[in-house]
Write a structure and sequence with these properties.
This protein is of the alpha/beta class. The chain has one domain: Ribonuclease Z/Hydroxyacylglutathione hydrolase-like (Metallo-beta-lactamase, Chain A, 4-Layer Sandwich), CATH 3.60.15.10. The chain is 28% helix and 26% strand. The protein is globular. GO terms for molecular function: hydrolase activity. InterPro entries: Metallo-B-lactamas, RibonucZ/Hydroxyglut_hydro, WalJ/YycJ, WalJ/YycJ-like. Keywords: Hydrolase. It holds the Pfam family Lactamase_B_2.
Length: 262
Amino acid sequence: MRFSVLASGSTGNAIYVATDRVSVLIDVGITGKQAEAALQTIGVNPADLSAILVTHEHVDHIKGVGVMARRYNLPIYANEKTWAELNGQIGTIKEEQKRLFAVGEKRELEDLGIESFGISHDAAEPMGFCFYHGKKKLSVATDLGYVSDRIKETIRGADAYVFESNHDVELLRMSQYPWSIKRRILSDVGHLSNEAAGDALTECLTGGAERVYLAHLSKENNMIDLARLTVKNILEEKGLTVGDDVHLRDTYPDRPTKLEEL
């Protein structure tokens, strides 16, 4: 199983996951042109894509969904409540391209196993995904107000995680954001802070050299080095050595991560 975080952050999110038989995008929160360029950067022909999976309907996750689906005749998988919101936002999609993927459902696309799980965020019915191929597992969990025990149990045991580390609490509190937005971000249906990400990861990681991609960083209320350092310190306080037991990886709003294989 191969994957790359094509873009991640407040301005747009997209992830590529593939086996030798199938390749999918998880969200396309960047323009179609940006998505094509990111795929080409990692040596992937967009014409070889198989499907798009949608976590939820916020624009930083769906901006290019309609364009990519129409351009490459791709099926779009989302749950029923998310589809109700998508229908007015992504343009005309042929009925045969509209596919349902319910929360908690497990299915296979060719040789790629996919499991969805519910998350806490202020969207219609947001989801995360776990991907399985052979004995390998990839867990994708962003846009989380908090990480429930059920989510921890679902994502635990992965070889790699794409995990939200959205903001530094103090930077957010001191920011120019209106209090209403600060309250939303800090709420149980908002986003995970660096500290919350580190705490949750300590309950999921086994120290088996897992790769953790810190994702969905706020442009205004976080910094890559700060997110990495905060999570590193929390993990090491719990006895996990970063660089040995765990490998932390950065993600970027404007370029893809290296195409990695599990």
